[in-house]
Design a protein that fits this description.
heterodimer; A: about 350 residues; mainly alpha; two-stranded antiparallel ribbon; 13 helices; B: about 500 residues; alpha/beta; Rossmann fold; 2 domains; 6-stranded mixed sheet; 16 helices; about 25% strand; globular
Chain lengths: ~350, ~500
């Protein structure tokens, strides 16, 4: 028999070991799945393409970082909100709205060459995401409407709104009626930090933001307010924290960062506003946040891991004709094993013989 | 045949911990025998062994001169040993009669069952209606159902675990009448408690346990309450006495405070009025569920109060939140420890930050200095004798009493001018309760005002010089204690209260 016994103090060793254990289990399960699924292809070469190639090939590695950047930025915002027990699961919608708002500014000043344009677009992107998440905050505070439903449903509205914008005001006037915007001019594009690739400044912004968030959460009363509100709302009132403010902070921060990521995606790798902007980053970032156990620095690493599954997944699709759901299977297994292994932090496993 | 229980040299260990270490006791028939001890002294383990739900590692028992080693509670009941647990096991949606039938292992069922229940209920003064649904009964009435259920099995030994911790004074008095009658009819009673006054009143013998070991068997009437308490905790208790009552000027007043509760099961507060002077300890007595929680929320500032109803040092504080009130030197200890006064999943260090972290420079402009936090929580832990391996332990891993000491200490190191504390010693063992009371008295002696909201009447009577009673959301005037004070308080406490709603407790401490 196996029994889980609560630990008195969280195990520090397990905090570090459990992600490794989860990774190993994911790899093992993947191996088993491949043995059953693959015909005529050696498992080891699929493994190589999936997990190793994106890390050693410079092009794939740069693509990995390109995909990791928005996941980092959105994941950071979500990890703060989730700590407070505010479940913004519609970051995808805020990401789209940020993309639209920021792009609209860029397109409004089309062909204006100026240094202020990109910062202005950035601010518009952040505000777009904040506004969109703010709707959920307002409804929750004013009418006790559940933010999970509001944020999720508004995501679909945002995607349709994007479509409407691209068929209407933001459509490229000389684009043969394709629902796409103009291609941004140079001043409206993010600087590239790795020549010859699509890797843009968003990665650096993500790292800086993560350090700021780490400080805010570990070293500032703001983090305590968020944490206490999340785990014991009455104690938060006892301490004198305003619970409405916590709701506002959580949603505005996560919405603003999602909006920022949306703009970075449009003004970065895409270079224009297209119907393809919503690439599921907003939802995947939920996995990123939880893989990192809501830790702001951990988000950087979990975003890289998830980005690896994206890039590797695409590669095996192309090279071995494997289905695209490979990526989702991996992300699902990763999250499952991570959450499962985390139980070892609070509990220890004891084996014992049953009587009789 | 003499029904007598002889327990000899019982030992029961859990890993390294000896929950019972060579314990012996003997319970004579027709006697009421007290089993005394603090939380964790081994009372429960011993009782579970007698009742067959635990088997001892070594030692033996004799029951009516035969070897007795029950393998299950069922066997214990077959042998005539019954138990009334502290937490009742009744189905709320069923009637009293159905509940009793279900608990009887199918013995002695016949058609006149309802009449049998009434017979027992008359014989032992246990007022009960067999057809009533248990969900509608007060706690006291539910206990009577449990007792009748045991009595229908004609027990020769009845074990009662902390029976009075949930009863009102009148219910306690009624219970004692029943118990005495039972004993007179030949049933022995093993009475588990840590309320010494009760034990001295009804028990003819007492066995005291401490740390799993037998301290002494004695006749409780031959010892004072203080002596018994000291045997229980194993050290001397400090005599509680105010050294310096200098009642100063008015510091805090509540005027005409009314509030309709947001919760439909809540209590509406009506025209609460109270004045407190510097250096005074004021008590609000009352049975739980009469508005204590609602009042505490308003006093802490978790809900704001109407204009000019709360006045502290000449300032209207009704609109201030708890942090702003603390900045004026009002501090609070709420009744609920986990989830209200402390965050269960955070360390003690982190929990320090709930109360005015800026004042002690644990934070400056919101930036936390974790070294200073650790220093301060260490100070609280040392000064108030909180038993914990380190300040990094999660709040929920501490025992109730230790966490209470931590919470009271956290507020006291801020030197409050006004401390408002609900149930300061709820679930706290006698030694720690004594320490907390001592600390409160010292604070008042220094000139601070203290407001104690407690259901423990003994606590209020021993500490407070001004006593009010909260009943159905109304606060009485200060009770004049010079003539028949206690009687007046009792009347005010039950004043117009429907039996059905009187949830809890006077003079009670429960195990955590």
């Amino acid at each position: 028999m196996i029994r889980l016994i609560p630990r008195v103090e969280n195990s520090t060793a397990m905090v570090l070991l459990s992600p490794l254990l989860a990774l190993t289990l994911t790899a093992l399960s993947a191996y088993l799945i491949f043995i059953f699924v693959l015909v005529d292809i050696p498992v080891s070469s699929v493994f190589f393409t999936l997990f190793i190639e994106p890390l050693i090939d410079s092009y794939y590695f740069s693509e990995l970082l390109v995909k990791a950047a928005p996941l980092m930025i959105i994941g950071l915002g979500l990890s703060i909100g989730f700590r407070a027990g505010i479940w913004n699961i519609g970051a995808e919608g805020q990401y789209v709205m940020g993309g639209i708002a920021g792009s609209a500014v860029g397109l409004y000043f089309y062909n204006v060459e100026a240094l202020w344009l990109l910062p202005l677009m950035t601010i518009a992107g952040i505000l777009g995401g904040m506004f969109y998440a703010g709707i959920a905050a307002f409804l929750r505070i004013k009418y006790q409407v559940n933010e999970i439903l509001v944020t999720l449903m508004l995501t679909y509205v945002a995607v349709l709104f994007l479509s409407a914008m691209l068929q209407g005001p933001l459509r490229n006037p000389s684009g043969f009626n394709f629902p796409e915007s103009r291609i941004f001019h140079d001043s409206a594009m993010l600087p590239i930090i790795w020549e010859g690739t699509r890797l843009h400044i968003g990665l650096i912004v993500a790292i800086i933001l993560s350090l700021v968030a780490w400080f805010g959460i570990k070293k500032h009363m703001f983090g305590m307010q968020i944490k206490i509100s999340g785990s014991a709302p009455r104690a938060a009132k006892f301490a004198g924290f305003d619970d409405n403010k916590t709701v506002w902070y959580s949603l505005l921060i996560s919405g603003g960062l999602a909006g920022l990521a949306g703009l970075f995606e449009a003004a970065g790798p895409a270079g224009q506003l297209t119907p393809g902007l919503p690439a599921f980053y907003g939802f995947t970032a939920i996995i990123v946040a939880f893989l990192a156990r809501l830790h702001p620095v951990g988000v950087l690493f979990s975003a890289l891991l998830i980005a690896l599954s994206y890039v590797g997944g695409e590669n095996v699709q192309i090279e071995y004709n494997l289905p695209s759901s490979i990526t989702q299977i991996f992300q699902g297994m990763l999250l499952f094993y991570f959450l499962a292994c985390d139980i070892l932090i609070k509990y220890k496993v004891v084996l014992f013989k049953t009587k009789n | 045949m003499k029904y007598q229980l002889e327990v000899s040299n019982i030992t029961k260990s859990y890993g390294d911990l000896k929950a019972n270490d060579n314990v012996s006791l003997s319970i004579k028939d027709s006697s009421i025998h007290a089993l005394l001890g603090e939380n964790g002294a081994g009372k429960s383990t011993l009782v579970k062994i007698i009742y067959g739900s635990l088997t001892p590692d070594s030692g033996e028992m004799k029951w009516a001169n035969n070897n007795y080693s029950p393998k299950s509670p069922f066997q214990a009941r077959e042998n005539g040993i019954a138990m009334v647990f502290q937490h009742f096991s009744l189905f709320e949606s069923l009637t009293v009669e159905d509940n009793i039938i279900l608990g009887l292992d199918g013995i002695g069922l016949n058609e006149n069952f309802s009449e049998q229940i009434i017979k027992y209920s008359k014989q032992y003064g246990l007022d009960i209606n067999p057809q009533q649904v248990v969900g509608d009964l007060s706690v006291g009435a539910r206990q009577r159902v449990e007792i009748i259920r045991c009595l229908m099995q004609n027990p020769k030994l009845l074990i009662m675990d902390e029976p009075t911790s949930v009863l009102t004074p009148q219910e306690v008095a009624d219970l004692f009448v029943t118990l005495k009658k039972l004993a007179a009819d030949g049933c022995a009673i093993l009475y588990i408690s840590h309320k010494l006054e009760e034990v001295r009143e009804i028990c003819s013998e007492a066995t005291i346990l401490r740390g799993g070991k037998l301290v002494q068997s004695c006749i409780p009437q031959e010892h004072s309450q203080k002596e018994l308490a000291e045997m229980m905790i194993g050290k001397k208790l400090t005599e509680l006495a105010r050294t310096n009552i200098t009642v100063g000027e008015n510091i805090f007043s509540i005027d005409n405070l009314s509030r309709k509760s947001d919760d439909i099961y809540g209590v509406n507060l009506e025209n609460i009025a109270l004045k407190m002077s510097k250096g005074s300890i004021v008590g609000i007595a009352g049975v739980a569920g009469n508005g204590q929680d609602e009042l505490m929320e308003l006093l802490i500032g978790e809900i704001s109060s109407p204009k000019s109803t709360l006045n502290f040092n000449g300032q209207d504080i009704g609109a201030l939140n708890s942090h702003e009130r603390r900045q004026l030197s009002m501090f609070f200890v709420p009744e609920e420890r986990l989830g209200h006064g402390a965050v269960p999943d955070m360390s003690l260090d982190e929990n320090m930050l709930l109360s005015r972290p800026d004042a002690t420079e644990m934070t400056s402009r919101g930036v936390i200095d974790w070294t200073k936090v650790a220093t301060h929580s260490k100070k609280v832990i040392d000064t108030f004798d909180v038993q914990t391996p380190s300040s990094r332990m999660l709040a929920k891993s501490l025992s109730g009493g230790n966490l209470q000491k931590f919470m009271v200490g956290r507020e006291l190191i801020q030197d409050p001018e006004l401390l408002i504390v609900a149930q300061p010693t709820w679930g706290v063992d006698a030694g720690s309760a004594n320490n907390i009371h001592q600390a409160l008295i010292e604070l008042a002696d220094k000139g601070s005002a203290i407001l104690i909201i407690s259901q423990d009447l003994d606590e209020i009577l021993s500490l407070c010089e001004q006593i009010h009673v909260l009943s159905e959301g109304k606060l009485s005037d200060a009770v004049d204690m010079k003539s028949n004070g206690l009687e007046k308080i009792s009347q005010l406490m039950v004043g117009g209260k429907k039996e059905k709603n009187s949830k809890l407790i006077v003079g009670a401490k429960t195990d955590d």
